[in-house]
Amino acid sequence: MTDQGPGADKNSNRQEVFISPTGAPMNVVQMAEGPQPQDFEVSLESLNQWQIAWRRFKRHRLAVVGTGIFGVMILLAIFGPIIWPYDRLALKPVTHSGGNPPGWMQNPRTLADPFGTDNGGRSVFILTVNGARLSMLIGIGTTVIAVTIGVVVGSFAGFFGGRIDGLLMRFVDFMLTIPFLFVILVMARFFGAGDPIVLTLIFGLLFWPGLARLVRALFLSLREQDFVQAARAVGVSDTRITFRHILPNALGPIIVSATLLVASAIVTEAFVSFLNFGLKATDLSWGNALASSQQYQIVGNWWWAFFPGMAIALTVTAINFMGDGLRDALDPRSRE
Amino acid sequence: MIKFIIRRSLGLVPLLLLVVVFSFLLMKAAPGGPEAQFQGNKKISQVQIDAWLKRWCLQPTDANTPILEQVGNYFVEFGGWFGILNCNRSGSQAFFSDSGGLNVLPPALGGGSNGVIHGDLGYGIQSGRPVTEIIAERIPATFILAFTALVLWVSIAIVLGVYAAIHRYSLFDQTVTFLSYIFYSLPTFWLGLNLIFIFGVALRWFPTGGIITTRDWSPFNTPQYWQQFGANPGAATLDIGRHLFLPVLTLVAVNIAGDSRFVRASMLESINQDYVRTARAKGLRNRVVVGKHALRNAMLPVVTNVALEIPFLFSGAIVTETIFNWPGMGRLFIDSIGGKDYFVIMGLLLVTAIITLFANLIADVVYAIVDPRIRYD
Amino acid sequence: MTGSILPVDDDVATRSAGRPLLEVRDLRTYFHVMDGVVRAVDGISFSIMAGETLGIVGESGCGKSVTSLSIMRLLDMPPAEIPSGEILFEGRDLLTMPDEEMRKVRGNDIAMIFQEPMTSLNPVFTVGDQIAEAVILHQGLSKKAAWDKAIESLKAVGINNPERRVKQYPHELSGGMRQRVMIAMALSCDPKLLIADEPTTALDVTIQAQILELIRTVQDRTGAALMLITHDLGVVAETVKDVVVMYAGRIVEEGSVEEVLLAPKHPYTEGLLGSIPSRGKRGERLNVIRGTVPNPFNMPPGCNFAPRCPYAFEPCTQADPRIGDANPPDVACWLYTATATSPTPPRVRPRLDLVEALG
Q1: pTM above the 0.80 mark?
Q2: Domains delineated in chain A
Q3: ipTM computed for the complex
Q4: What domains are there in chain B, each with its CATH number?
Q5: What is the largest CA-CA distance in chain B?
Q6: Cβ within 8 Å, pair B194-A306
Q7: Does A290 sit within 8 Å of B190, measured CB to CB?
């Protein structure tokens, strides 16, 4: 009984039972007499739900490309700072106001300063490569915190309902009422102290309400599904129902929104640091890399903002493509 | 209908109170505090500062103050900030105004004049002017930018989304889908910076920032400016329009992406409904089937979605106004955080929260009007 | 064609004199989906004379609804494709007709009633709006006249207080009431053919009988031909004269209701009849059809029904029987060929209880 629930739901197309034409409830007894012809074997290879999801994901070409780009960015975050360390940053004499243009703009064959330098003569390329690590860490760290809080709050509200649900959801409503970016900026400025860990905590504490609402909705609908009712009817405990029956089925949508959370955390960090309310100038992130670029944009120093921003844009696009593929693969009902 | 609106509005009151408490706590928890900021400002006299501290019941607190007293001070300060207490009086008399009525009541009923409940949001630490005045003068600029962008992006998104849904999987649909993915993912501030470089610096087609050309006009939203505006409305509008172009383009590009996908999904869902098949089976022209039966239903969630986007206009304003040096509320907010201007920050938090709640209310009401299935009794 | 909603039965005789009103010849409807091609309808032929009634019966997924949607040309192409076949309506092929002409046939000459009354009406327009718009379109009536006609047709399907109902939205009506509205809408332009696709499946049992009765009486009064699609043999017995049994996109048996219900020839028909519980036969075992409908991407070789058929013998797994191959020609089964040696054709107790309804 316990294992029939989720499986029956996912493979319903293959487990169709013949229903009497009148649809009337009846005591179905197999025909015992007569010649028994061999049962016709359906030769569709049997796939479990993760294999099916993987097949669907592979069909989403942009998602596969996105995963590739994201993988490269992760590798860059891990190994980039080793190959092109920040220590090796030799400050170049600044020839233009606000920094030197990329070397190839003068001589197409040079590899020097491929992204130009900032107003202090720091290579934007090295800033970008070294910024990947903190940006990624803050993005992923925020998501871990937010998903943990969101799942706990959402499943509490969704599973117990009643007064606990009312209370928690009023709080979520309230969190969604205060303009998110306002609070992030205020908290980052007053409590952030330029520390990446504190910043991650602040983000995590502010990013969860949307996820809690999603998890609650999933719980509310899954709770009413037949397989959960069936499990309850045979006396399965609440904890077991939650962990064995509901959470596994809610996992798809949760993974999808967690993926998208990483992207928005990276962008938010970049904006906060860009405004100089985020990390200390000595910590390198993509946002910090373009922090003072705005005033020099007007004199034509496009490279300073362009390349670190491009890294953010690429990563975020890649993650969003990935999230879309995951949605197709894990949560097909939510599509169109 | 009126009853429905009143009931929904009353439901918002507790949320609003929570926001007031939250903004107060956020500011009190911040290191420093308004007192220190006031003291550091040479433009304001000590007498004035003392009067203000009294007005919001701000209690002198330092590290030596016992915890219990500090907590007590919090309540007193909140009472003053909210407008329940009147610190011109002491002890239990503080609940009453100078004229003798309960302080929390409106002045006409003998109440006091201090605190949020009386529309008093405090004084700006940098400028020394009332916060309500500081915020009010920034509203027009934000309003012009936000609503020009909103109207443009919603109408374009509807056209694109509906067309893409009708011609699903066509080249047009795939292009729109692909581009919206890209634009949806671009960080707004970075897109803005690049547009400044391309159109403002390299091509010199549009100004790179500000709302007006400062050498031709008096500062925006001053009486002198409106005088000049009245004298030459055509040139003034054109000037604002030129300055509007890049920030609006930024907001539109980013927001069309999400909204056109929303409209497309909504329209696709509607097109696949049984009632659309019924309409087709009746022999109606395709134009009527799509434009009447499918579109009308598809627009229901879109209307709600647009109303719910209004609060994000102000988050968007923070980003675009910063990048384009636009003298609106977002810019004010960033400047106030930079200068730790507590009262202005608290005021802006409140104003935006009210706008958010109001937008939610509008969304409910509009939905109840356009969908006959929703009853408002 | 203007005039009252329930015209006198004047031209039925002339209509039915010549060829069939609707003739479907070797219709194939395929769906191109991610995993391959589904042959939802795979070469079926049947016809309906003017004013006559035909039932199409089969399990869900056998292609009966796709058949009706193909006739109305309401399938999205792609993914659907009609690679071959003709659908002749009054001698004209609906499949090759220009869109604009086909549009004039829909709702006007052929009207359709769908399975789900709860979702088949547009929730944001009033009932009157939705009936009147077809009348305005096809009959060129003024808005006022069309509205009167809407009230009239609501009255004709037995809705009380039609003047009030016509101004209501679908959500204010019950399921049975909505299906009456659908019928009123279908009849509002006096169609020559009425297609009812599982019109009672979504309704309560008590309402089902009323709606069937209503369809029968309006069919009788208007003289429209009726094509009734259902999985319920009981419904067929009560409502139509001829019947076609479909299995996996094919017709496996056809004939008059009496023939099919009293002396089913195809083992599948036999199974369908055997799985209906009969009144007054308590404690008796039901003979259900074993197994499931074959996977559409992986049809068995030979006869589609062979894997489930209790009488299957060698030829069944080798060649594919079609209507006309056997003797009598109205069944697609190798049991009925001259060469057939072994198993005896099915012997099933005639379902007199179902046929009672025929009188």
Answers
A1: no
A2: 74-329 (1.10.3720.10)
A3: 0.82
A4: 24-118 (no CATH), 131-370 (1.10.3720.10)
A5: 84
A6: yes
A7: yes
